[in-house]
């Protein structure tokens, strides 16, 4: 105990820039103790009930493998500011978690300070202005429940437990996206704590460059303590999931119908969302194809095939109930997970081929305990991208526009039970991703965009998803607000703006025809 005290005093006497960065764990202990004095009862140490509760409330079990030196639960922007000043002063590694639904271990830290924003969860709906102020720690179910009283909703997540912080800082695909673009297109103001601990409001009039950059901000610019978002009227909606067995006779036709529906009617008639094909292994059916429907006008959508579904949860209901219905799908469960994503021009044969590539990969891994896999296909149509520009544009839209066509975002959503299988699964998913992208490249239909919110942690999301011009602008915003890259060095997790980007990466994607 005495030697620890001496050690901490020694560390405290060092100036911040003298604390060696490879000594992050010592620095973190210093930060935790300092914060514990300044914010008593808000700092939780290993072994405490609250620390363990927070650790196991992440979506990914891998996040609980990381053991921060302490977890801190601020309840105001000024407390976030105090924490930011403390961690930067002592060079403590830290991570930030809002809803904890990162699809890779990106919101926790080993041996550092974990900020849990779960208590920053206020929801204020201004009916007259059509704007809601949301704390980053809100879950979508709470946001929609609060908005339901006013018959409004917003461009938010499609599962009730997903958090709003990560969702908005990575873009955000919603049931409303065909009409209103990405979630972040609908954020009109960010309250954000910068690297030096100051809190600013970033919007179209104040700090406009930061406002633009935060629309794909991830962990580069600051900790957002409030999102002000546009709301839209909604009453009854129609939607749910229709489930079909996968067969080589019927599924290619279903995919073709999904593609033509997404390309045409969906934007105006029905807000059709994802096609998800994956493992089922129930009732003699090995794989299922599910169509996730949602019509905000409450107009029932036609089935996309004559084959009767083996399950059909579609109904007319409230927006909140629909979101709850979607949660009941398999991949909402807490397990070990890995997701990955890439983007192609809409192309039915490639969708079928990628599914079959996934099937070949995962059939070889049948022995992996608790394995579940899905390949999700989501339309990012020209209509979606047009809607995305209405509120001023975002940093990633240009790359999406490069293909000049409707796009399909493809993601692999894979889960399993045991840590011992992690490496096998990571390798298989990486190889499957590389093979699929190569297939799309050969067919001339790859779009460079990688969706940040579904991307695997090692993917060059920024290098691939920004145009050369927007990369230059992003880096300039970064220099303005975090010139020394303090957040790059200390803030663990999220996706970072790259230091060097090879010129070739900006070559226009999907330039050749099929
Ligand atoms: C079951 C499931 C369903 C999903 N559904 C959708 C969907 O419908 N549409 C969609 O677009 N995406 C969806 N996603 C992806 C989801 O948007 C991302 O995983 C998102 O990052 C989750 O946000 P979070 O706040 O819960 O995550 P967290 O794990 O808390 O945070 C994710 C990342 O954002 C950073 N971050 C979080 N809050 C802040 C903040 N306030 N300031 C600065 N940085 C912050 C974290 O440091 C971390 O790097 C889904 C994911 C899952 C697991």
Automatic annotation (TrEMBL):
The keyword Flavoprotein applies. Keywords: FAD, Flavoprotein, Oxidoreductase, Signal. This is FAD-binding domain-containing protein. InterPro entries: FAD-bd_PCMH (IPR016166), FAD-bd_PCMH-like_sf (IPR036318), FAD-bd_PCMH_sub2 (IPR016169), FAD-linked_Oxidoreductase (IPR050416), Oxid_FAD_bind_N (IPR006094). Residues 64-234 form the FAD-binding PCMH-type domain. Belongs to the oxygen-dependent FAD-linked oxidoreductase family. It comes from Dendrothele bispora (strain CBS 962.96). Residues 1-16 form the signal peptide. GO terms for molecular function: FAD binding; oxidoreductase activity. Coiled coil: none annotated.
């Amino acid at each position: 105990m005495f030697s620890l005290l001496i050690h901490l005093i020694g560390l405290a006497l060092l100036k911040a820039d003298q604390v060696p960065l490879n000594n992050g764990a010592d620095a973190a202990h210093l930060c935790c103790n300092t914060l514990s004095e300044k914010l008593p009862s808000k700092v939780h140490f290993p072994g405490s009930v609250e620390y363990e509760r927070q650790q196991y409330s992440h979506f990914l079990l891998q996040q609980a493998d990381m053991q921060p030196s302490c977890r801190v639960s601020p309840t105001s922007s000024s407390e976030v500011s105090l924490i930011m000043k403390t961690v930067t002063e002592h060079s403590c590694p830290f991570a930030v978690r809002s809803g904890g639904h990162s699809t890779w271990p990106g919101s926790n830290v080993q041996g550092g300070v974990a900020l849990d924003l779960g208590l920053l969860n206020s929801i204020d709906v201004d009916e007259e202005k059509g704007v809601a102020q949301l704390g980053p720690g809100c879950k979508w179910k709470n946001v929609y429940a609060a908005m339901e009283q006013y018959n409004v909703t917003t461009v938010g997540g499609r599962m009730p437990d997903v958090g709003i912080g990560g969702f908005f800082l990575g873009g955000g695909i919603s049931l409303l996206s065909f009409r209103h673009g990405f979630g972040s297109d609908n954020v009109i103001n960010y309250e954000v704590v910068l690297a030096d601990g100051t809190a600013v409001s970033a919007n179209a009039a104040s700090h406009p460059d930061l406002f633009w950059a935060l629309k794909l901000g991830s962990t580069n610019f600051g900790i957002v303590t409030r999102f002000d978002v546009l709301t839209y009227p909604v009453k009854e909606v129609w939607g749910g999931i229709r489930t079909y067995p996968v067969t080589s006779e019927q599924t290619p036709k279903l995919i073709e119908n999904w593609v033509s529906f997404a390309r045409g009617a969906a934007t105006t008639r029905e807000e059709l969302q994802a096609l998800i094909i994956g493992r089922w292994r129930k009732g003699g059916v090995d794989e299922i194809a599910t169509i996730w429907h949602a019509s905000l006008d409450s107009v029932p959508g036609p089935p996309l095939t004559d084959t009767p579904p083996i399950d059909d949860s579609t109904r007319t209901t409230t927006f909140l109930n629909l979101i709850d219905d979607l949660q009941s799908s398999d991949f909402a469960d807490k397990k070990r997970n890995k997701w990955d994503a890439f983007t192609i021009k809409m192309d039915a044969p490639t969708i079928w081929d990628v599914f079959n590539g996934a099937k070949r990969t995962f059939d070889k891994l049948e022995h992996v305990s608790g394995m579940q896999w899905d390949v999700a296909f989501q339309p990012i149509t020209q209509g979606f991208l047009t809607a995305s520009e209405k509120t001023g544009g975002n940093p990633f839209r240009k790359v999406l526009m490069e293909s000049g066509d409707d796009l399909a975002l493809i993601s692999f959503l894979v889960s399993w039970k045991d840590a011992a299988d992690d490496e096998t699964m990571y390798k298989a998913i990486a190889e499957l991703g590389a093979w699929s992208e190569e297939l799309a490249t050969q067919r001339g239909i790859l779009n460079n965009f990688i969706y940040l919110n579904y991307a695997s942690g090692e993917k060059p999301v920024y290098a691939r998803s920004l145009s050369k011009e927007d990369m230059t602008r992003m880096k300039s915003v970064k220099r303005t607000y975090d010139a020394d890259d303090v957040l790059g060095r200390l803030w663990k997790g999220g996706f970072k703006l790259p230091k060097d980007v090879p010129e070739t990466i900006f070559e226009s994607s999907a330039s050749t025809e099929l």
